[in-house]
Hints:
- The N and C termini lie far apart (36 Å).
- Strands 2-3-4-7-6-5 form a six-stranded antiparallel barrel.
- By secondary structure, it is α+β, with helices and mostly antiparallel strands.
- The protein is built from two helices and seven strands, in the order αβββββββα.
- The longest helix is centred in the first third of the chain and has 15 residues, at 3-17.
- A hairpin with a 3-residue loop joins strand 3 and strand 4 (57-62).
Amino acid sequence: MTDSGVKKEERTVNAERRRASRLQEDNDVTITIISEEIHLPKERTFYNLSKDISVSGIRIQTSIYLPINTHLEIKITLKDPPQIITAFAKVVWIQGLSEFNFYEAGLEFVNTSNEMIQQLEHYISSKL
């Protein structure tokens, strides 16, 4: 099987594992690393962009490599109506976008309040 065939198969499997609808929307995301691992960047706060979001997670674009299982606090600035949602997440996958020297990463929400989930669910359903 070719490399592109493997990637397509992996994406299909990942899509099947998704538990919630995703909203394709670019939002500003502020990430603070809360993991205490040695091989993490010295900077602890980064400004990034989301590519899509659901009640179970978010896909971001970042210039920083974040190892899988890195724990983060994230603040998502939603557009319309404007609001900020704060959540905790962990990195579940990351891949390089070599043509732009960026990464895309999938973050799964963890230890997130029901209030935040409901607020996000309402926002997403109003957009879909």
